[in-house]
Amino acid sequence: MTGYAFALDAPLRESTAASPAAPLVRLAGVSKRFGEVPALSDVALSVERGEILGIIGRSGAGKSTLIRCLNGLERPDAGTVEIAGRNIASLDERALQPVRRRIGMIFQHFNLLSAKTVAQNIALPLKIAGQKRTQRRARVAELLDLVGLADKARAYPAQLSGGQKQRVGIARALAADPVLLLSDEATSALDPETTVSILDLLRDINRRLGLTIALITHEMSVIRGIADRVVVLEGGRVIESGPVWRVFAAPQAEGTRRLLRPLQPQLPAEIAARLHATPQPRGGVVLRLDVHGAQAQAPLLATLSQHWGAPATLLHGGIDHVQGQPVGTLFIRLPGSGDDTASRLGRSLDASVTAWEVLGHVRDD
Amino acid sequence: MSVMTELMLQALWETVLMTIVSGAISFALGLPLGLLLVATDRGGILPNLAVNRGLGALVNGLRSVPFIILLVALIPLTRLLVGTSIGTIAAIVPLTIAATPYYARIAEVSLREVDHGLIEAARAMGASRSEIVREVLIPEALPSLAAGFTVTLITLIGASAVAGAVGAGGLGDLAIRYGYQRFQTDVMIEVVAILIVLVCGVQVVGDRLAKLLDHR
Hints:
The complex is a heterodimer.
Chain A: H1 4-18, E1 25-34, E2 37-47, E3 52-56, H2 63-69, E4 78-83, E5 86-87, H3 93-101, E6 103-107, H4 118-128, H5 133-146, H6 162-174, E7 180-184, H7 192-209, E8 212-217, H8 220-226, E9 229-234, E10 237-243, H9 244-249, H10 254-260, H11 269-272, E11 283-292, H12 294-297, H13 300-308, E12 313-322, E13 325-335, H14 341-349, E14 355-363
Helix pairs in contact in A: 1-3, 4-5, 4-6, 5-6, 6-7
Chain B: H1 3-39, H2 49-64, H3 67-73, H4 75-82, H5 88-112, H6 116-124, H7 129-164, H8 170-180, H9 185-213
């Protein structure tokens, strides 16, 4: 092997010694355009060692370009991409090869070689790294066990199901002992059940091997399933980032809210149809309450009823758990139709919920 | 064995020899040429548009010359290479020069059809260009490369009959001299029958091979 092989390892050890808490990946000012179209604009983010960072955005938000910058498949026009303290943004194809050998990648369409068996596919990164046949064989057996496909070593990818193919993809990505695993929409082509099993496998690998993972997806459910932190991309810019539970509990950007909507309870259509914009005589007010953390564990409805002086009715919604943190959206109805409703609501609610909104008024039937 | 049977066997051997030798050389030269055409194209693994255009023009140029003209035009080169411009061995030179760009284009199409995601996966593993060619492009395109080679061989069987017209021997030559010029229709029919069997045989073997190599 050439000196290249040590090029990534050397600063890796160096930077760990200098500051063990330094992020494994650090992007600053990364911009990239394709012709006239900007794909990424001034993106800054970091991936901490051992964490799972989820990058979410709708299609065309620049996520694919972003993840390809992390292993040099895409070269940014401006900015730095530091992997283990080394800027790879300016490296040429040849200098990138040893860096890429330490970064595994899995793909939406698996990208397994159809002419090679499962075992040969998994062995390929090892072959590229220059390992001997006997070494490769032992490692492949280990990896097949890890992903639960020990009996499929001699099968060809075409004989496998989607979930099995992705397991082979994962085994292949892990073969050369990567410091970082990149996942490019790895579950987008899979059914929901298989998606869960693949996400579980990734989570398990992250915990057991301490492997750092950066994944992109357009589904909030994937972020919620395994990510520790989330970065939201829109139009090539980072519009929000933070721990997953916090972004779920209190999204700041409108784009994030749009992405979260499918996962959040919505007011049932039959109630929405009966809403009036103005207070109704002998009616009530319908509210949406967002709660998280301690708020979600408090006897919210009871407290609210007490403050209000009349019983609150739960119409829809509930408390969910994201990363072990209670996060919820409740739709409730409070009787009353006076002009002071708004200020009374404010006094009752501001302290006990994260956000609230009057959706409308209903008449009592 | 009758004289006619002997002539027939001799001609068959010459046709097979011309086809196999020129086929093998065209495969050995056409595949790298096809690879270069794919690799040097925009978005390829070794983009170089000048080389790409140059090779493309060379291939198109050779392919636009009618084979009978190429046969005659290449006589000086043939003499230089094999010492004579007449006979079965001499015919291999123009046959090869005609079939190489033909197979290069077929190989180019096969190689281009390899899913770009597979090349990207190999790049992401840190594969070098030659590893991408060896581990991804060629193995993945192999069934299609084999099918294309079958087509090339069959085209060569036809072209070798044309080469017969300028003294290369082979089945085509036999058909023209005996079947056409001497009005021996039975010879003509026999030659055509042998050619049909030959072509079908090559096709069947080629199809089997392509299927055997295909794990998609």
